[in-house]
């Protein structure tokens, strides 16, 4: 077995973990796959010479790739949040309840769709790596380009936002369900103007490989092209809760075939993912709703 085959084998051993890290950071299955692929390209170019802990090295690489993607996303859509402010550190040492932290980790799927998209990139990375994957702050620090103390502050600030949002998610979920419902209605009715009004100017539509194989476009960017893709379509798509977040599903005969997930910021749809991979759909917590 040559070195590349050995590297490929070791990479596959870590792929599930790397995708979990990337998905929790990015909130998009297709972007997570892109980040994992980029980490493989970096490994195949550099090799593993001198790397004692390949799993840890790959986690660091995929985290840096995700941080770059988050920063690029922020620069396209909004002004970055101030990540340099000095705030008190919240941790186990100063009274955070470990049981509450465990519950917080269990609910991060919903928190990602509701809160994490509003965080500054470094805050999001520090929170996910520490609170979800138990990475120590001295290892997170070089990834986000801060001191260990500053990395701890980033994570604690993100944690407080997630805790605050967890207290009253119903209003936010209802608002997003209303936006998704309006999108489906405009799509079915061919109301191009209404679709444009619901979409961010830089909205991105992505489809996974399975969706592309049945005719979906791979990537569509911009409000007008995305509106054109949906206008007059989605006739049988139904609103749904997908891992607790507002979305839609095409389920002929009650069997989910394609899921649509939405990233909504500031009342506008900024990302849509079309997911048709049967294995992935089978792992979703999916509830079809009445219109």
Task: Describe the protein in words.
This protein is of the alpha+beta class. The protein has two domains: 3-166, Butyryl-CoA Dehydrogenase, subunit A, domain 3, CATH 1.20.140.160; 170-288, Nuclear Transport Factor 2, Chain: A (Roll), CATH 3.10.450.50. It is 57% helix and 14% strand. The protein is built from 13 helices and seven strands. The protein has helices at residues 3-26, 29-46, 54-77, 98-106, 108-114, 121-132, 137-144, 148-166, 170-189, 192-198, 209-213, 223-230, 278-282, and strands at residues 199-207, 219-221, 238-242, 245-250, 258-265, 268-275, 286-288. It has a seven-stranded mixed sheet. α10 (192-198) crosses α12. The protein is globular and about 60 Å long. The relative contact order is 0.10. The model is unreliable at 78-111 (pLDDT under 50).
Summarize the structure.
The protein is an alpha+beta fold and 291 residues long.
Structural class: alpha+beta
State the fourth-level CATH superfamily of the largest domain.
PhyR, sigma-like (SL) domain
Roughly what fraction of the amino acids lie in strands? 5-15%
Q: How far from one another are the termini?
A: 56 Å
What top-tier CATH class of the largest domain fits best? Mainly Alpha
pLDDT averaged residue by residue:
79
Indicate the percent of residues in helices. 55-70%
| Oligomer status | single chain
Largest sheet: 7 strands, mixed
What would CATH call the architecture of the largest domain?
Answer: Up-down Bundle
